[in-house]
Amino acid sequence: MAAKKNNQSNTTKDINYYKKKFWRVFAYSLLGVLAFFLFASWGLFGSMPSFEDLENPDSNLATEIISSDGVLIGKYFKTNRSQLKYSDLPKNLVEALVATEDARFYEHSGIDGRGTLRAVFSLGTNGGASTLTQQLAKQLFHGEGSKFLPFRIVQKIKEWIIAIRLERQYTKNEILAMYCNVYDFGNYSVGVSSAAQTYFSKDPKDLTIDESAILVGMFKNSGLYNPVRNPQGVKNRRNVVLSQMAKAKMISEAEKERLQALPITLKFKLESHREGMATYFREYLRDYMKKWVTENKKPDGSEYDIYKDGLKIYTTIDSRMQSYAEEAVAAHMKNLQQQFFIEQKTNKNAPFVNITQAETDRIIMQAMKNSVRWAQMKEMDKSEDDIIASFKVKTKMRVFTWKGERDTIMTPIDSIRYYKHFLQSGLMAMEPQTGAIKAWVGGINYKFFQYDHVGQGARQVGSTFKPFVYATAIEELNMSPCDSILDGPFMIHKGRHHVTEDWEPRNSDYRYRGMVTLKQALAASINTVSAKLIDRTSPEAVVELTKKLGVKTEIPVQPSIALGAVDITVEDMVAAYSTFANQGVYVKPQFLSRIENKSGEVIYEPIPESHDVLNKDIAFAVIKLLQGVTESGSGVRLRTQGGGSGDNRWTGYPYMFTNPIAGKTGTTQNQSDGWFMGMVPNLVTGVWVGCEDRSARFKSLTYGQGATAALPVWGYFMKKCYADKDLQVSKGEFERPANLSIKVDCYPRPAVVKDTTQTEQNTDEFEL
């Protein structure tokens, strides 16, 4: 009996012993886990994000360039990622994401207990346990991490801690938006905004249900489920997402089946700074921003980084006008280029005209030295002889053509000569009252031709300079458009106005018209009249006025400037002409509306710059002079259906405009440059056309003059703008000043000049 009691006592003792041991182990384990979490949160197992990090994660946001009508026209980025708010996300994408990735997202506080237990007991074979918040934590602060199990466990614990902190710091909707903003969808697209543009050429709000399902499917593995490389795998994954949506009652079974039957349809386009809309303007803006960041610092004194700080640059560019301008340039230049190639077929030194072999060699050598090939070989310490020899070896290359890029084999030196054949163009359109630049086309194709012919390239302006001479005469000599002047032989003798030898300008047709009004003289672009006016006013007065009109290039104080022997950019010419349309007030061209930081706070707003140049009466008198050009001069083809030489290259003709238009054509020496400056009351547009090298040109005025080379771009562009009623481009009269003191309504007389297409030339002797 005693033995039995002893056994019971020992059994009770053993149970109590193991109970105590169990609870001791349990307590130590619990304390160990708690300590582990505590140490992890303190950063003993690697740094943890601070409160400030959670508020402002290192997000590498692309800077966005936005047009005046709210269209995203480009980005600056190292990582192509744009910030979206929850309200910017389409409802179908949010539903698909929650249904597929985290069905209990709105129920948990960062960690899904049920999912975690399921993953533990199934050893991960029955689905993972990561919530969207945990995945966000990993994306923001860890990345993929280590494959080594102990390190992976530490990382998972850190993810839990960060997830809980994120849930405390942000709302569920903010977490969803952040997650959609940080995921890498491949093809240089980070975030839903970039992915929508890259794969579907859409804004996120315009995504359809099946497109949203494709993107959500990519969250599992964007490398594996890449729509470009693996369309079948993507379709299968998309259909899984759609099934999850149907299971969650977000779409019906019938809708699920309809959507699952759809093919994978992409509109794939990699976002690149060399392609897309307004490429030349975006590069001009990039250069501007390089200086801006040094002058406009962050509150902490550091510089903004346009490649990662997620700035929003709101510009004055109108995406519709920009599109029409690019279309106009492309349509006409493609057309005119055909004629240029036809002319050059018989030119042994194509595309150069009337230059020596030594001059040709100098041009080619300069192009070689400016090339990427030369720079790369120089870095490799190659000798100049070796570099030159490499330019004579045939190689595979992709070249630009107006029918698309083409693979070919040629020597680099031949490719230089080939590219010298291409006619270039510059176009800028601006509101004269505000200075807002609405369209900017700096060339024919930024990928192949980076030189900007709007803000970068100053070219000789020809007869488009003459209105500055006439404006000076009206101001200095109290003349009017209706005053008469003799068109006859004229000479400025050596010593007068700094002339080093006798200068006798002649008209392009070598004839004289006798007495003409100033309006008729400008319409016919009579050289002798311009020369007489600058002789009376002095070159100094004309230069002074031109500077007030915003022209920044150096202008020689010589009478010959009256015929346009002056280099000016398209940008400056548009601003100068806008002064006439703005009643004599110069407004500096403006391309920025404001700049915001990634939080939407305005950090910069430019202050408009303007100053008075001419009184209203003089400015209006110049407008009336310029209207004569489109009524009876070289711009009359804007109003007629009549023919003329080169008419098969007048892109978009007939234009048949009936509204008031003030304008001026210009053609420079040997047809190297063709210009047209055109104005309506609320839009001034300048167009230049010519080859990169002035010795590459049309042989005759028929195609090389401004009326054929540049005016058609303006006409085509304006037809597009007028067809778009939302743009509200004016067809009305220019505002006439009250109590106008200058006679501008001249008595009727037979027009001196009809539409002659061979009346423009600029040499030391004559120009129109």
Describe the model.
The chain has 768 residues and is an alpha+beta fold. The protein is 42% helix and 11% strand. The chain is built from 26 helices and 18 strands. The protein has a five-stranded mixed β-sheet, covered by helices on one side. Strands 7-6-18-17-16 form a five-stranded antiparallel β-sheet, sandwiched between helices. A hairpin with a 5-residue loop joins strand 1 and strand 2. Helix 3 packs across helix 10, helix 10 runs antiparallel to helix 11 and helix 18 crosses helix 20. The C terminus is likely disordered.
Set down the secondary structure blueprint.
Elements: H1 2-42, H2 51-55, E1 63-66, E2 72-76, H3 91-101, H4 113-121, H5 132-141, H6 149-169, H7 172-182, H8 192-200, H9 209-218, H10 231-247, H11 253-260, H12 279-295, E3 312-315, H13 319-344, H14 357-369, H15 372-379, H16 384-390, E4 395-399, E5 406-410, H17 412-420, E6 423-430, E7 437-441, E8 459-460, H18 466-477, E9 484-487, E10 514-517, H19 518-523, H20 527-537, H21 539-548, E11 567-568, H22 570-581, E12 585-587, E13 592-596, E14 602-604, E15 610-612, H23 616-632, E16 662-667, E17 674-680, E18 683-691, H24 701-704, H25 706-709, H26 711-723
Parallel strand pairs: 1-3
Antiparallel strand pairs: 1-2, 3-13, 4-5, 6-7, 6-18, 8-11, 9-10, 12-15, 13-14, 16-17, 17-18
Helix pairs in contact: 3-9, 3-10, 5-6, 5-7, 9-10, 10-11, 13-26, 18-20, 18-21, 18-23
Short structural summary:
The chain has 768 residues and is α+β, with helices and mostly antiparallel strands. The chain is built from 26 helices and 18 strands. 42% of the residues lie in helices and 11% in strands.
